[in-house]
């Protein structure tokens, strides 16, 4: 399966990443990507930028180094109500919102709490994808959450950095299980490198291997073509970005 979109990347604006957006775009082109989502951490993470940083993404070019730029954020799940740390006024200036659990923001609790937080985030309508769900510190009811995501057209992320096995230790087998449930539920799947350095942008080899082993069809993977990804954005109520269909 070809993967032409990386939906989870960071620049040095996140505070613990090391490359610029231009460097990420150049690496994306070298690694064969058509589209790049720039998704720095929202403000509750230590070192992350103010919410104006995300609102002002409207000034970014739609194409850098021949790669389409998707304006996004990795927001933090804040509580069991599923709130994220992104001011609602920012929503209209972004194309892509990932919601993720991070230990410095959401103290790990129990399966019921994590499950309810994810379901409430999905139902809020503000979240396009759920990030790196494999983290065993945030165990949840796979069936309930993924079926809810399928019902509300929220994508389930398979994260390449997680699959390396040295970050969020204990996640790898869980990611396979999550992908199996997503496949059966008919949920949309998205793919992210979670790159914190430009050379890792577009490195989706482990994700591709997982999807092939699980037998997920390309039609279910929104990053398998530009058209599938842009159609998903439109399904989510985003405006059509005409230039992306020329890449």
From TrEMBL:
InterPro entries: Phosphatase_YcdX_put, PHP_dom, PHP_phosphatase, Pol/His_phosphatase_N, Pol/histidinol_Pase-like. GO terms for molecular function: phosphatase activity; zinc ion binding. Residues 5-79 form the Polymerase/histidinol phosphatase N-terminal domain. The keyword Cell membrane does not apply. Keywords: Hydrolase, Metal-binding, Zinc. Binds 3 Zn(2+) ions per subunit. Zn(2+) 3 binds at residues 74, 102, 132. Zn(2+) 2 binds at residues 16, 41, 196. GO terms for cellular component: cytosol. Its cofactor is Zn(2+). It holds the Pfam family PHP. Belongs to the PHP family. This is Phosphatase. It comes from Vibrio astriarenae. The lineage of its organism: Bacteria, Pseudomonadati, Pseudomonadota, Gammaproteobacteria, Vibrionales.
């Amino acid at each position: 399966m070809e993967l032409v979109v990386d939906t989870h990347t960071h620049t040095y604006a996140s505070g613990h990443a090391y490359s610029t957006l231009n460097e990420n775009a150049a690496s994306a082109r070298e690694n064969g990507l058509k589209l790049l989502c720039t998704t720095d951490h929202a403000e509750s993470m230590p070192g992350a930028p103010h919410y104006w940083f995300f609102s002002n993404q409207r000034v970014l070019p739609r194409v850098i180094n021949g790669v389409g730029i998707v304006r996004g954020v990795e927001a933090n799940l804040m509580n069991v109500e599923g709130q994220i740390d992104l001011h609602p006024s920012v929503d209209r200036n972004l194309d892509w919102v990932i919601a993720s659990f991070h230990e410095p923001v959401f103290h790990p609790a129990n399966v019921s709490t994590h499950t309810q937080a994810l379901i409430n985030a999905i139902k809020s309508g503000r979240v396009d994808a759920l990030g790196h769900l494999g983290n065993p510190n945030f165990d949840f009811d796979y069936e309930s959450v993924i079926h809810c995501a399928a019902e509300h057209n929220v994508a389930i992320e398979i994260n390449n950095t997680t699959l390396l096995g040295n970050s969020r230790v204990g996640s790898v087998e869980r990611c396979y299980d999550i992908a199996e449930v997503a496949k059966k539920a008919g949920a949309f799947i998205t793919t992210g490198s979670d790159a914190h350095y430009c050379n890792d942008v577009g490195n989706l080899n482990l994700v591709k291997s997982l999807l092939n082993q699980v037998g997920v069809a390309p039609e279910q993977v929104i990053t398998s073509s530009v058209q599938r990804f842009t159609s998903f954005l439109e399904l989510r109520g985003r405006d059509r970005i005409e230039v992306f269909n020329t890449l």
